[in-house]
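sanity check this fold:
=====
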Amino acid sequence: MTDLFHTHTALTLRRIALIYLVLMLCRVVFYVYNAGTLGPLTGGELWQLLAGALKFDTASVVYADGVFILLSLLPLHVRDKRWYQGVLYGYYVVVNTLLIVCVNLADAVYFRYTQKRFTADEFFFADNANSLQLVGKFLAENWQLVLVAALLVALLAKGYGRRIRPRSLFSGWAYYLASTAVFVVAAGLCIAGMRGGFTRMTRPITLSNATLYTPDSGRANLILSNPFCILRTVGSAGSVRYVKYFTPEELPEYFTPVHTPPDSAAIDLSGRNVVIFILESMSAEHSAHLRPDLYADRETKGFTPFLDSLMREGLTFRQMYANGTRSIQAMPSVLGSIPSFKTPFVLMPQSLGESRQLPAILADRGYATAFYCGSERGSMGFGAYARSAGVDRLVSREEYEARHGTNDFDGYWGIWDDKFLQFAGEEFAATPEPFFAALFTLSSHHPFVVPAEFADSLPKGYTRIHRGVAYDDLAFRRFFDRFGDEEWFRRTVFVFVADHVSSEKFAPETSVYPGNMHILGFIYTPDGALRGEIGSVTQQLDIMPTLLGLLGNDRPYFAFGRDVLNEQERPGWSVGYDGQYRAVTDDALLSFDDAASAVTPRPGHVSDAAAADSLLDRFRALVQQYYSHVERKRYTPE
């Protein structure tokens, strides 16, 4: 009996079963870390989730250990050699430490900030010069995970049974016949495991298959595991596959990204400078002006008192929604009115196709164009995207430190926001008019630190980010106090918009769609030329069309958003993707994928079935237009 349990096949099964156990333990940690977002699990739901998890874990095991399995079952006597067994042990421990333990535990933290697991996108775009420093900071903050990782690696190493010498039940020709049969069966099972099934009709599973086991996109990530998510998405940005719902002739009738400006606009701000502040993690819930209901009975009345005062004097978008959950998705949404769906647009090779985005359009009208970010030049891909959008000048940490020295680095991401805003104002003042500038703030990002000089005077708040939000609000107050009387300032249109909702949330509705996309957004003109409120749904995609309308653009342009002041015939919605295509309107929530669609009335609203079906068709047409242009690598009105 002992010989049976010590055969190559039995030992391989034991070792693979141990990987399944480790994956499940990583999933438990993932849930514990994100229980507040994922919510409680019911008994009936748990079995569905486990069934889905088993399928994706099988794919992860094959991706990570397929080579190990086949080498372990190789039908040759060389596998009995001591050196050969040593190589197998080294492969097992090293590969599974990296691809199973480290990546899946890292997912537990990463999901809190992006609502997704690691995919090939992150590795394709991981070009931060301070990546190693940031990894060190994250490890220190999450030391509990480091301990768990050490225990799981020890479990793998101890449970491997290295001291057990494999035995064979057969000899001679029977050995080769039996071993070959086992090898062939194992190879077939590996192929089926990677594909997600045995039948010829089975298509290789993708990340979206997780929604077969739960309609909730967050819990779909609980089902998924790595290295499946990473390896399954390698190369996915290079191919474009999408459903064609309409013929090329029908498609523009439902939605077109080509805009023809009206003969006259509601408001004319032609020739003014434009500055867009893209605010890191500035959720609507941080603002007492946007969410007074959250602060009625609280001692701290919001964390953006200065920005709230600007909103009361400007044009405020009360229902502004982000089109994605990551900073790199916000850039093309805001500056190019181009969304991101399954893959962030910037990460797709096709994003390098011909385009006419806001900076390029304004440059053709004589504007000087610049992009400001206090991080190192080239980090996070912001500068590269800005260049592709038509920005002429990049201003980064290097330019700041060349003038002001190296003492204002925050130790994590870049220059403190209040220092960098002051520097940017100096640069604005020296720039020939008219000019366009976009500036990305940093300090309200994890790990949510503020300069020591302000730490005691800023409100601690209800989540870790609130002090950083209050610091950024103060930074803008200081910016406006210093430059508010200058001529260039009075001739500037200021746009404030968040990149995405913060990972730190305290209002329950901010944890679920569409509240988890509700952000701060408004336009401010110092002379009061633009005032009021837009109560209907708006999105980051609407910023470029609205600005072009305000600046008197009279040429056709390409955009997936709408001019909220002059294009009332276009849908008022915000679109995105979280495992399904989703849109929020004033009245309803829309969703669809390849298999199904749904329309859910928003609280207090009654959905008109005919109108909802029409909106779904227009939404499908928008998605088809997006992918057809990605396929052609062309983002111009021609």
